[in-house]
């Protein structure tokens, strides 16, 4: 879609890059509430961000539907009665598309338009943003919602370009891919792999899961809400969302403070069993006991419960062994819709590539180190993303003194509050590095509201810009690292620390202090006139 304005250089107050949850809400805040001249661009052919691209079978939120949506408009919430505990990708995409029309944002969106370069001019205090559509924007404020999980990770496997069948990444799913009766491989078994495997197993001829590291996963327990439950969610809107904002994870339940070994063995087993039957990965880790993520013995108690469940579910002992993790239960909590049961099917098998590596991909399929050729029609890469900073590094973004953002982050991505980084004034990131590790829509709302309020205050000062102080950015990074180190999460090889990308430096990527504490920090920063920032103005601007 070409820009409606043919002028190759367009001057705006603000440009929003990305049209997922964050970009859509930002455009609404900037245009409809602040009255700024703002436009949003996205490389996709439609709105939705992550949910536009991740159309793979089984794609499902793993935050419960009643908190996986916007809360800024009570009427919108009341008119969105998602009927299941977790919500499917098509429903989320339809919802976000409807939000764009509800707030009359579509005329101010430019789809199929990618940012190719952005540069800040110290003399004018403006950003110049170039696109692949030949249109350049000159803007005071640059708001980037490039996506926490959107820069696809394609593994470097020998011969991958020689495969004669279909090769598909779950993060860029082709709409015309029909898996019926096909011989299919799924490489990867994180959250996405755990969703796609049970979804496609009933229709493929044979499915082989190529798994490097087994994962701890619990049932999602997805089900339809009763009409009474749906009405209660609407009636309890304020109380529910207040609880979300005052919690750590923003998942819609009260996190436990009970200690794992403060109860008897029988009571502990009953708590785990009830959580297993209710469903939800975050509930299992954080609603059962309060020390699973911090105490190794408590963590092992939860992990051993899941291992016992795998042994009970999976009938073949060798398959069960291959599916059973032995490391810490300290990655992003997963849930699934019958993952372990799927491996009881005659048409599903598993290869542990840490034990029997992929030698190479050939035109006919995948050749493993034992000399076996796995003949395939389709290879699905459920290999995740270069998370958090991936899209920022893949784009030329230059700040003050022509510094490239990728160079600024040479030792790992840094920010203050997950929204701003030193040397890049008036650039505000949504879900940037070291933002809160929570259910995302509530964190997105908190960040977008803080960003738009800040832009509103700056807009009243012609030419002014805010830039994070270097020492403050350093201190925030240290704070995030210290909080993370008080948990078990850094001890596990996880994408939340960049461990899934070969050669990527493992570093802290999230603020694990919780949404309540994070909101308090944001409120104090704004109330005290931004002590973490320096306020600048171009030389030509008079007081």
TrEMBL record:
Superkingdom, natural source: Bacteria
InterPro entries per UniProt: FAD-binding_Monooxygenases, FAD/NAD-bd_sf, Flavin_mOase-like
GO molecular function, one term: NADP binding
Keyword annotations of the record: FAD, Flavoprotein, NADP, Oxidoreductase
Statement: the UniProt record of this protein carries the keyword Oxidoreductase: yes
Keyword Zinc: no
Homology family: Belongs to the FAD-binding monooxygenase family.
Stored PANTHER family: DUAL-FUNCTIONAL MONOOXYGENASE_METHYLTRANSFERASE PSOF, L-ORNITHINE N(5)-MONOOXYGENASE-RELATED
Official protein name in the record: NAD(P)/FAD-dependent oxidoreductase
Protein species of origin: Aeromicrobium phoceense
Highest classification ranks of the organism: Bacteria, Bacillati, Actinomycetota, Actinomycetes, Propionibacteriales
